[in-house]
Design a protein that fits this description.
The protein has eleven helices and 13 strands. By secondary structure, it is α/β, with parallel strands linked by helices. The strands form two sheets. A five-stranded mixed barrel has the order 1-2-3-5-4. A two-stranded antiparallel ribbon has the order 6-7. Strand 12 and strand 13 form a beta hairpin. The longest helix has 22 residues, at 354-375.
Amino acid sequence: MLHRRHPCREEKDPAPKGIMTFGEPQAIEESICIRKEQKAMEWNNITLEDMGWNEFFAKNLEKSANRAHRPVRVTGVRRSGFIVFDGNDEYQATVSGRLLHDSSTGALFPAAGDWVTVRENVITGVLPRRNALSRGASGNRGKLVTLSVEEQVIATNIDTVFIVSGLDRDYNIRRIERYLALVYNSGCSPVVLLNKADLHPDVERFVEEVESAAVGVPVHLLSARDSVGLEALERYLAPGKTVALVGSSGVGKSTLVNRMKGEARQTTKQVSESHGKGVHTTTSRDLIRLPGGGMIIDNPGIREIAFPNDDGGIDAVFPEIEAWSRECRFSDCSHQHEPGCMVREAIRSGKLPFDRFESYLKMKRELHYLSQRAQKSASRVEKERWKEISLKTRKYKNDR
């Protein structure tokens, strides 16, 4: 009986003596072949229902002009196109010219986690989303005049968002507050993961601080490197459920994915010892299926947390400030200098930390400016802003 050789394990001629080779060619080819086999096994015997397809998407497909086309889920976003899964195979697809044109006028454009329709490996439409985790355009940090209302979609149709923070120099409670506002604005449910718990002997103080700032939000301690605390995350990753990861570069998102996947699925790198910052190891967005049936979307590290809109996220992050605001003497109280301000009273009495109040005001100012930008030209908004500053300066000089 003849046995067929594995195509990736054919015998190769050894390299001539005296010639330096960077790794054995056969070992490299076998490694590539094994990765391909693992990728194929990841989607073996999987149905669309296992991928999160439900009645919501089925009804929207029936209403769609593309209802005769095949529904698939976007499992990867690349510069050259998209990776999709149709219940049998995972393959690359491109966007139709019409969809590309329509997206420039406000129509949905595919993102990781989307359900789309395809015809002959061409994406013809995007089905309505249950939710979408998105942020404002990056690159405008510290430039109030250039804040943009442009929306960048990170992931869609997700059940939970893991906000990952490392307990090293990355840890910043104010940044976690911004992530929470971003997640709430997108209509998603947040969970805070405090990674690298092995770096501190007393980690409970971090948990207490986050729990006091993230009221009602689950907080979990873990060490992805040592696979400690991962069992607590299983309930968020039930079959058919989708979780998105967000956080700065170097917090351990890819390491977490690898531990939960049970293999080195994502590339990882060490955090720089000189400045304590990570590097952009993950450069694409991928929906990865885990052994338990849940799915996780790994995302590149976020440097700037900008808001594309205000959908009540800030009020959800600072419920105590909103409650005190309702007790202020004036309904339009700015909490700066008005008499009868209960928010300022809470600060004076020590009930509200001043830096938390400052974080609240900063987000409110950003959203107020974005709201104006959506209705007026940037030059007009900036002119009015400087006029207001001039009036306040003049008033201050007159009162001296």
